[in-house]
Amino acid sequence: MSTRAGFVALIGEPNAGKSTLLNRMVGAKVSIVTHKVQTTRARIRGVAIEGDAQLVFVDTPGLFKPRRRLDRAMVAAAWGGAADADVVVLLIEANRGITDGVKAILENLGEVTRGRKVALAINKIDRVQSPALLALTKDMNDRFPFEETFMISAEKGHGVASLRAWLAGQLPDGPWLYPEDQIADLPLRMIAAEITREKLTLRLHQELPYQLTVETENWEERPDGSARIDQLIYVMRDGHKGIVLGHKGETIKQVGAAARAELEEFLGRRVHLFLQIKVRPNWLEEAERYSEMGLDFKDGN
Question: What is the pTM for the complete model shown?
Answer without folding.
Answer: 0.59
